[in-house]
Amino acid sequence: MGQKITKKELERAENLYNEQRFDEAVVEWKKTLKRLNKPQDKFQLCGRICSALCDVGKYREALTFAGQQCELATAIGDSNFKAEAYFSIAFCNEKSCEFEKAISYCKRAQHKHPEKSVISGKTFLCLGNAYAGMSEFRRSWTHYVRAMDEAKSTANKVLEIQTSAKMGALFCRLGDHESCAAYCNNSLELLGDLMDDDPDLKYRRQVVVQIAEAFRKQGRLAEAMDSCEDAMKIAMQYSDRPVQARCLYLFADIHRKRSDCERASPRYESAYSIMSEIGDRVGQVEVLGGMAKTAVLQRDYQKARELNNKALDLSTKADCKLGMLRCHARQKLLNEISPGDDTGQGHETYVKKLVEEMELFCGVCGDVIGQKPERLEPLSCGHFVHARCAPHLARSTIGRAGRRRPCPACRSNSSRNPVLPLT
Ligand SMILES: [Zn+2]
Ligand SMILES: [Zn+2]
After folding, report:
1. Residue at a domain's end among 155, 173, 196
2. Region Disordered: what ranges (predicted)?
3. 419 C-alpha vs ligand 1 centroid, how far in Å?
4. Tens of pLDDT along 159-189?
């Protein structure tokens, strides 16, 4: 009798999940969880609950189920289970911007299960995201590449969709909008192959909002608005809080770019409140930056300064170097427009130091990367060079004996550096 009920409940939950009604699926799963006896079954169900909670932005609650998985794995005494539990903990931590913890748990997962497995590709993706959050772009890229290799070699389309979108997001941050579009479109194309009732279609709205962001950065505001409205509509339909917050932030930014502070401000406020609720500190830093820029438009420099300080504080706590850099640069600008108590010395030094730390310069020409939109070329070591500089690198990488010279930035040997035909 009990087993019958359990089976029915599980079926119902599965249907809800497939319809992307994640919150409702979680309610059903929680009921079933109480009825299960076998630790292996409980473990699997905790994993499902954990990932469904992450889908709706409830990362902190998700973490408690990842913790339960960890306890169950210890009881079962199997290293595969342990590896999966560590991955779940890493996943929740990455989502709630606890990047150091995410990295540490990913490494534990890899240590428990170093060979190719279902979780190994996901672990590389999670590491890539955590490093991206900390603005360690070189490490982020190399981990994305490994996730992508794994996705292709195991024909894991869903992993490819996610990794390709994240690679696009990385290029967007570095100001290469052409590459961003190429990677995002690759994700969209793969998503197009999914059936209408596939829950993995949830990734589509994340890609669309990324495309909206790239349009916004290029000043293509009407297109940004269209993509953002598209993503928002679906995010509302499926109670996807993280994407809703992202859309609100972009709406606000678009209005600000159009000098419409009246419309921008309430949208920044709403984005901020969702992001603080779900624990997206990196997002909060971006929103505070947008609010500070709005205050500058309104010539309220005192408010701009306060908002900027708050952003600096948060980005320091989240270890988000790009956020810190933007705050220092903004503070320097603010001091030029309206001198205050802060003499402004030091900000330039911080900016230089952060650029160095993030290795945000082209190894060939030495210019800073990401200051203006430009096509980039990643090298196998993870360093980026300008695409226009890559031919020079190719020439210089062929030594006298026809041997490749290392990447100018890190001098690591690389077999994948672009090479021009010698003829
Ligand atoms: Zn260059
Ligand atoms: Zn390098």
Report:
1. 155
2. 402-423
3. 16
4. 999 999 999 999 999 999 999 999 999 999 9
